[in-house]
Design goal:
The chain is α+β, with helices and mostly antiparallel strands. The protein has a domain of 108 residues: 2-Layer Sandwich (HIT family, subunit A), CATH 3.30.428. It contains four helices and five strands; from the N terminus they run H-E-E-E-H-E-E-H-H. A five-stranded antiparallel β-sheet has the order 1-2-3-5-4, with helices on one face. A hairpin with a 3-residue loop joins strand 1 and strand 2. The N and C termini lie far apart (40 Å).
Amino acid sequence: MVDDQNCLFCKIIKKEIPAEIVYEDNSTLAFLDINPRNPGHVLVIPKNHYGDIFEINDSELRELIVSVKRLAVASKDGMKADGVSISQSNGAAAGQVISHLHFHVIPRFESEGPQGLEAILPTKKMTNEMLSEVKSAIMGSLQNGPPSGESEAPARKKEEDPFGF
């Protein structure tokens, strides 16, 4: 297991810090969030330390997402929920608090709101020209980025927001 000596989640994996573990296999661990949004709110993490989704290799990410699905089904069924929100943030700007890749699996109920981030985050008005620029930027990055497979993402430089949001 690759870990970070100061990482809270790595300490949970090594059983140095107690947690309510609900699932474990060779590569992933899932435990109840200590600040749950709803009963059954689970965090699903890789056992190897990766700061965010940009660091994990594709093979381990596939194993992790299979565990996320398994926990989504179990959490929804176990809590008799109407749905499940799955969230994952990368970097402080996105709201990531603990620098260990993790997915939140949160049971959701018809009686509560808002239903998801789409209901909270304001929409951005974009012209057709701006949409075309965004499309080109994403497609260019796909073409020029690392090939799919077991590659690691290259280091990225911080750039200004070209759209002024």
